[in-house]
């Protein structure tokens, strides 16, 4: 049986958007051959991925719901819109199953995210395929938007190549340090010649950042007396809307969008610091530079295990890139 909801009024759509974390909407018309062509694919996705109060699939007949069509600027059929927390996150136009499948592949990953944070078990293994892990709860009414980072354009300066690279910071899996296993591959980042790290993250869409979550799990106890053992970051400077990474001298001299001082009390039991941002300064953000200035220990290195961005994502800057959503960027 289909789990898709047929929208009969703007009020009904509004209620669905308020009650479900993710909503996938199919704007169609019965007379459109293109709409009919892709309809079976949409129904299959609805049957496989719908979850009460988490993921809802809806259909909107554009001939019947003129007010909704006008509100969301629907100009062709079919148009698919993915809403996250009631706001437009993705838009796909046309009856191209490849485009729709690509967006839904990304949606599938987010469903694992929602299942974990919403109380439904989705697994939390220590490997890269072990399910979604979260180091801290999400602030109310905001989403994990880490998936908006353009991984292939990220740049990390002064990292030790014997540890992990920049990609491990955004891994959805539980850090190996919390699982008691060291693993063949180090799934964390360490600085190299001193304590400092410079991370440049460009985004796929315009973001509103609310919270930065950083996980750092250096060895504890007697091991930390070794001068080579990394420490957690203490001072962090954030810079917004830079077209590329900064140099270390430039980052030290520039006035930051926000400067953060972390202490022991800021880290929870899973080694994650939940850092609220000055929201008014983090509107309409296209990139973020994270500058780890120093660590909180005696060693000459700092360590980062995971990084999460929390806030709201707008529409894609370039709609043509939708075909590539879900593809694994090249090394």
UniProtKB/TrEMBL annotation:
- Say which domain of life the source belongs to: Eukaryota
Which residue ranges does the record assign to the PITH domain? 134-329
A single GO CC term for this protein reads: cytoplasm
The cross-references to Gene3D superfamilies, in alphabetical order and at most eight, read: Glutaredoxin (3.40.30.10), PITH domain (2.60.120.470)
Q: Which residues form the Thioredoxin domain?
A: 1-109
What are the protein's UniProt keywords? Disulfide bond
Entries under PANTHER family matching the protein: THIOREDOXIN-LIKE PROTEIN 1
Family membership noted in the UniProt record = Belongs to the thioredoxin family.
This one is known as PITH domain-containing protein
